[in-house]
Design brief:
522 residues, alpha/beta, six-stranded mixed sheet, 19 helices, 19% strand
Length: 522
């Protein structure tokens, strides 16, 4: 028996009308009878499509302000009847029920309504679809005979198969799986809203992820690992997954990790800023009133590591900035920015030796995202925490040394403290002229991180400031900083040996600021 099922009757009831008129026109050309309700029926009629009214077909009018439209045996019987069962066919014939071979339904926009600022609870409740999910589930259950479409993205393949005589079982099974994904995500959004993201400050008792695969990558961190990218439909702020790639090769797994970190560094900075990322740690970053100058300063933070890096930029990339990036001897893997001037794109993709290889990612306006949680999978489950986006306000900072902070250093101190939370622990950064000049990342000993950062900075360490993501357990790091010429240190404080560390700073005329907040990043 052929697994191709002709489509003679279709039921259409959608909230999202995108592409609907084209689909219905294709169905009409194929001789399909179309049954519809309410706003969908009116939309199709206005598009010149002949439509049969579901209310006339069932003999029962829409009621309760449209809450009851399709909940009727003549609708669900026509969807659920098995075509290979004589008793089913005799039953629907007895009751004058038409069989539906195609159901096209997408649901009320609950998530969009609930996420709109100022949306009232009653308004959101009215966007909880009842008949729609029931139709979708019924059609998906009976996919042996019925095709179900829940997204405009599916219309093209449906029409192609109709032109060939009907839908295949393979397509109907795939559409059924998509349909159950659709209703599951819909119910999850409602449950999360009804419960609230948090209850009395606690995390929810259950957490479910509903992501859709966007693309499969060539490989993961290493060539023997498979990898893919999944999109979170709940994220609406600028991000890498929804970004538009305007030039360059396919992004790799590692590119995406680095670009995401590079974007996170510059996202919250008001002045023009550039971050230079290598192996998911910043090797350079800077701010300046002029974007091109900030870019130059960021690349000079660690020129050796900047080769083959990815860049995060918080303003539109202009021609002047592109000129900096086109300097001989520099190789950039990828750049993420809100936008790129046409002239800058032309320069970046034609002038350097890397030319069309550089990936240019346009993410749009870097709006400040709402507070969120970070998730990390471990064996047997998942760790969840608030994202570390809140740095301690300067009003809470305390100068704990007798040595006062030179007023000219405060911008560098604030910049260093903002940067250190983006570096893997144990984290030490050195900053001067609001740019990174030395980074010590991911060491088991804080002393090692200090020495690496100082070594990276070289002579530039003289007069620079140092930030540490956590307290100093001993004064040995201060001795190393003093020898390098560091003039100020900012750190959380909280060690049992804080007094010894403070005494070491005063001994070398180094000002020290306590913030009272740690920024571990494991």
């Amino acid at each position: 028996m052929s697994n191709v099922t002709p489509v003679r009757n279709a039921l259409i009831s959608v909230s999202d009308k995108l592409g609907l008129a084209d689909l219905a026109a294709g169905l009409q050309r194929a001789g399909v009878k179309i049954y519809s309700t309410g706003g969908t029926r009116r939309h199709l009629e206005q598009s010149g499509i002949e439509v049969l009214d579901v209310a006339e077909y069932t003999g029962f009018p829409e009621m309760l302000d449209g809450r009851v439209k399709t909940l009727h045996p003549k609708v669900f019987g026509g969807i659920l009847a098995r075509r290979d069962r004589d008793d089913h066919l005799e039953s629907i014939k007895e009751h004058g029920i038409a069989t539906f071979d195609l159901v096209v339904v997408n649901l009320y926009p609950f998530a969009a309504t609930a996420s709109r600022p100022g949306a009232k609870f009653e308004e959101c409740v009215e966007q909880i679809d009842i008949g729609g999910p029931s139709l979708v589930r019924a059609a998906a259950k009976n996919h042996q005979d019925v095709a179900v479409a829940t997204s405009p993205e599916q219309y093209g393949e449906l029409l192609e198969q109709l032109d060939a005589g009907g839908t295949t079982l393979e397509l109907r099974k795939q559409l059924a799986a998509d349909a159950f994904d659709h209703t599951a995500a819909y119910d999850r959004a409602i449950a999360d809203y009804m419960r609230g993201d948090k209850i009395a400050g606690e995390f929810p008792s259950a957490m479910h992820l509903s992501l859709r695969r966007k693309t499969q990558l060539r490989y993961g961190e290493n060539p023997h690992q498979r990898a893919a990218v999944y999109a979170d439909p709940a994220v609406r702020s600028a991000n890498l997954v929804s970004a538009r790639q305007i030039s360059g090769k396919e992004l790799s797994y590692n590119n995406l990790l680095d670009l995401d970190s590079a974007l996170e560094i510059v996202r919250g900075l008001a002045t023009p800023a550039v971050s230079v990322m290598k192996h998911n740690n910043p090797c350079g970053a800077a701010t300046d009133a002029n974007l091109a100058t900030a870019c130059k300063k960021a690349l000079e933070g660690d020129p050796l590591s900047a080769f083959g890096s990815v860049l995060g930029i918080n303003k539109t990339v202009d021609v002047e900035t592109a000129e900096v990036l086109c300097q001989p001897g520099l190789f950039i893997e990828a750049i993420v920015a809100p936008d790129f001037e046409a002239g800058a794109v032309g320069m970046l993709t034609t002038r350097p030796r890397w030319r069309e290889n550089v990936r240019l990612m346009q993410v749009g306006i870097l709006d400040d995202p709402p507070p969120s949680v970070s998730r990390r999978f471990i064996s047997g489950g998942m760790l969840v925490q608030d994202s570390d986006r809140m740095t301690s306000p300067r009003l809470q900072w305390e100068t704990v040394t007798d040595t006062e902070v030179d007023d000219a250093l405060w911008d560098d101190i604030a910049f260093a403290w903002e940067m250190v939370r983006h570096v893997k622990s144990n984290a030490i950064v050195l900053a001067a002229d609001t740019s990174l000049i030395g980074v010590g990342a991911g060491q088991m000993s804080r002393v090692d991180s200090v020495e690496i950062a100082i070594d990276k900075a070289g002579d530039r360490a003289k007069g620079a400031v140092l930030a540490s993501d956590a307290f100093f357990p001993f004064p040995d790091s201060i001795e190393a900083a003093a020898e390098a010429g560091i003039v100020a240190v900012i750190q959380p404080g909280g060690s049992r040996r804080d007094e010894e560390v403070i005494e070491a700073c005063d001994k070398h005329d180094i000002a020290m600021i306590f913030t009272g907040r740690r920024h571990f990043k494991h």
